[in-house]
Amino acid sequence: SQKIEQNSEALNIQEGKTATLTCNYTNYSPAYLQWYRQDPGRGPVFLLLIRENEKEKRKERLKVTFDTTLKQSLFHITASQPADSATYLCALGKSGGSYIPTFGRGTSLIVHP
Amino acid sequence: DAGVIQSPRHEVTEMGQEVTLRCKPISGHNSLFWYRQTMMRGLELLIYFNNNVPIDDSGMPEDRFSAKMPNASFSTLKIQPSEPRDSAVYFCASSLGQSYSYEQYFGPGTRLTVT
User: Fold this and answer.
1) B106–A101: do the CB atoms touch at under 8 Å?
2) Per-residue confidence (pLDDT) for residue B20, from 0 to 100
3) Contacts B45 to A, Cβ<8 Å
4) For A42, which of B43, B45, B108 is closest by C-beta distance?
5) Which of A33, A51, A105 to probe by mutation at the B interface, max B CB count within 10 Å?
6) Dist. CA B62–CA B82, nearest whole Å
7) Is the separation of the CB atoms in B6 and B110 below 8 Å?
8) Residues 6+ apart with CB under 8 A from A104
9) pLDDT digit string (tens) for A80-98?
10) Which of A23, A27, A91, B109 is 20 to 30 A removed from B74 (C-alpha atoms)?
């Protein structure tokens, strides 16, 4: 069956360091992968999308990589700040009629000042 | 833009009662989604509408759950009768459908507690 795996353990890092979160998947051939941020008591907020033919995408301090051979995406936050503390969800989707993404369960990031 | 609006934000009800959750999507969005989020199962898609028509309801747990979208600006998710295992946060999301980013805009959620 299709499976999306994100580390269930929280990632604790010091302010200023680069945070790296992992999203692995099995039995899936996604056309795209998204990353969302979710703060406590709020709905997820879209951050970035990367397509299957793209290796890397950047947006300000965020960088996403997508390796369809390893079936893995890495999400990096450089120069992390306490305000980056949140849960980060990856979501995979196919193109066309069934484009609706399937979400992973998320990884909590805690940035310590 | 006010974003996706959901009501109520919190709902506490007793087992067996009917619960109705409401959602107003972002104006101009033609796709609407209902999700349920729990610690155990994460974010699960319950049902998806496109242009007010239900397209995929395979995630609806059972017949106790029903969803409607009578027009482009309003949708409801109803649980009748409710059970304690329905306790979760229910999110509504909308999107422009098959847009470039497939980005979904989520509402703040309704936290449902069934006692």
Assistant:
1) no
2) 98
3) 100, 102
4) B108
5) A105
6) 11
7) yes
8) A4, A5, A6, A23, A89, A90, A91, B42
9) 999 999 999 999 987 665 6
10) A91
Q: Of chain A residues 35-94, which have a CB less than 8 A from chain B?
A: 41-46, 49, 89, 93
* Antiparallel, parallel or unpaired: β A72-77 and A19-26: antiparallel
Predicted confidence (pLDDT) per residue in B53-102, tens digit: 998 898 898 899 999 999 999 999 999 999 999 999 999 999 986 655 67
Long-range contacts of A30-33 (CB under 8 A, 24+ apart): A30/A92, A30/A93, A30/A94, A31/A93, A31/A94, A31/A95, A31/A96, A31/A99, A32/A92, A32/A93, A32/A95, A32/A101, A32/B102, A33/A64, A33/A66, A33/A73, A33/A90, A33/A91, A33/A92, A33/A93
In angstroms, rounded to a whole number, what is the distance separating the alpha carbons of residues A70 and B53? 38
In this structure, are residues A43 and B109 in contact, taking their beta carbons and an 8 Å threshold?
yes
The DSSP bridge partners found for residue B47 are B34
Chain B residues touching residue A46 (CB < 8 angstroms): 101, 103-105
d(CA A56, CA B114): 44
